[in-house]
Structures
1.
Amino acid sequence: MRFRFPPGGQDRSRLTRMPRPGLVIAVLAFAGMGASFMQTILLPIQSELPVLLGVSRDVTAWVITVTLLVAAICTPISGRLGDMYGKKTVALALLGLLALGSVVAALAPSVVLLIVGRGLQGMGMGVVPLGISILRDVLHRDRLGSGIALVSATLGVGGALGLPISAYVTERYDWHVVFWVAAGIGLLALVLVAWVVPVSTLRTGGRLDVVGVIGLAIGLTGVLLAVSRGNDWGWGSPRTLGLLLGGAVVLLVWGWYELRIQEPLVDLRVTARGTVLFTNLASIAMGFALFASNVVFPQLLELPTAAGGLGLTLMQASLILMPSGLVMLAMSPVAGRLAHRFGAKPLLASGAAVIAVSYVIAVVVELDVWHVLVVNIVVGVGIGLGFAAMPALIMQVVPSHETGAANGLNTLMRSLGTTSAAAVVGGVLAAGGAQYQGVPVPSDDAFRTALLLGLLASVVCTVLALLIPRPKPHVDEHPSLPDGVL
């Protein structure tokens, strides 16, 4: 341990007791991966849940959906709370709720309590944007780029690495054990963050915008619920359309309200700046491109060969998909150096272009197992580059006291992309029209259409990245960001 001033100087934070920077980055990355792991923890047994829980498929869908909904809603809110009351404090609270939710889910005697536990697990996702903001407060700018890249990449890494872990556990033990594993991860992350991560005194104070919190929660719930359940309810059903249009109207009113109060939950004027706006729009497209492959490849790998698939077991398919997450991890230090040298905007555009190339290969080539392995690794390279660039772009133009809320909103945009991809691509595959032993399965044309959607999203992301204007931040407002990050 040693004593030092954080990079912004004494006006940003008082004297802070700092461990090694690499240890801070590693701990925050571990916490982020643990939180994102909760998104895929039940995917290996998703189809078996109706039998395991003794309820209908429509009910068990909430076990998956509630985690995504709560994560999307709580992420920007927790970012704002971190700006106000301390990012480490809020991160510890979220990790505590994640661990509590895992225990509740492990002991749940009914599906209702299981859904409650899964909702608490979803709250942990806010640790990722908070971790990025903590790095800005406490790291020297020479280490900031690679640190941001690693923590930001955990949004994809956790799911990629978590899938084989959860598959292994559920194949060999009672399915409740996976929640005890999740509880252990959450508690370990909680202890490490409490012990290693320093406290930043950079806080805004003020009052929480309770009306803004309620409005955002209601609006996002309507929109995300319609998107995530549209395939089951029917896209033209009154329930789906009512939630979608109602949520959109609430969000418009919420935006009008946020522009007229002194201490908003989200400063939409900052969000409307060209750099932030185009980066967030690109985040939606990249999230869609990422999750399109996450939906297509597992089904293609696990579908029997007689039905046009590749005939792998769940564990085999998970191991084929896992290297993508390892590549995201490996790309983090590279992405940090590239952003420092060439700028974050070219990095984001390059990452999106790499993903587009991978989808072109997937569409043109008749996919075999090793093709899927290579294509998914290339997707991981693109995601590693793009996810590293997004927070760096945003923090160039966002005041230092709003980084938590701004990064939380960007994480929400990525979640909107992944949720939309799950619904749209899942719908395309479900409507494929093929049959195998009397069961509907995706056809070759359905797989190709889904991959084309991923290609379209990555091309849109590339174009949006190229349209990002070069910001002109005030030097005193962003003293901790690396030189030449744009």
2.
Amino acid sequence: MTQSQWCPCRRGEPFEECCGPVLAGERGAPTAEALMRSRYTAFAVGDGDYLRRSWHSSRRPPVVELDGDQRWMFLEIVRVERGGPFDDTGVVEFVAHYRADGVRGSLHEVSRFAREDGAWVYVDGVIEP
């Protein structure tokens, strides 16, 4: 990804100022929503290592394998509950749009986040119809 590219999370900032430093481990996500955005960005740029690192340790899979044929197009945040700088838990509902095998699709999920050792991590999610 070049410096002039906008971040896939669609906050309207360049990647190197938005999710790039979070994926690189240079700083943590300050909120549950920021972590959700960084995880979407990791899917979009193919960073399975970051996805694994940002998973709660009690639920972290041994390996995260990404579908190289799936192209993540854009992210919509539907709602956010808690998950701020002074919270320990949060919920983010989102719709992630993708294209796979020439067909458009979307993933609608309500995700739970928590702090682990002071950092926001993904706990789990429920996929909505």
3.
Amino acid sequence: MPPEIDNFNFAIMKKRRAIFPGSFDPLTLGHYDIIKRGITLFDELIIAIGVNTDKKYMFPLEERKRFISEAFKDEPQITVLTYQGLTVDFCKKVNAGFILRGLRNPADFEFEKAIAHTNRKLSEIETVFLLTSSGKSYISSSIVRDVIRNGGDYSGLVPDSVRTK
């Protein structure tokens, strides 16, 4: 082993902790795809469920937490937490250096780019974008909610943990 590696203190390496924020109302296969791919990039991934008291959700917060926890019960590097307020403030609170975001289309990119620039202006947080896998880019929580509200078959849009609701 080269001496520079022999003398390197691996214990002081900073863990790469990211948050993946969203309302997850409900968790979709698009979210699932980004999370599964995101855990290969980071040592820890916090699924951060944002709580907005002005917003009406289809699923209660505890149920949304359960959907995510059950879907990733075998992934020890994933934690599910809730937060209110600015995402960058939550990142500081949990010592996360990165925000993970998924992009489905060019409109998502433009919207997310503006948020990422604002977050960098407010803090040192980096945003990492992943494109959704082909075949999942059309899936959004709002589409899934509409299918559920109208009695449609949403089984191909969500993980098993959501289908057992």
4.
Amino acid sequence: MNIDRNLRTPARLLLAVPVAALALSLAACSASRPTVDQVSDGLVKFMESQGQGDVFTEDAADCFAGYLVDSKLSNDTLNYIAQGKDQASSTDDADLTQKILQDNYDECTA
């Protein structure tokens, strides 16, 4: 009987449990909806990267972020925005983002 072989199988199974848990937790993180504060921070970060941080206030970012998070935008697109990226998960999301920003511009920048 090969004792070494019998010990490796349980060890492999035990190693598979944390790997599977890590994969599931990473998948859950990417699918979760960011908060208004996270989206607001991402908007500020993006505007600063474009050289417009001094004209785009945190109040405006908070206002826009509220509308964005309450919309039908996908979690992926909102996560891109929260990271300060000018990116959308689909053309529909890109169009909806533009519409939300345009429709609420007067209110959020007043």
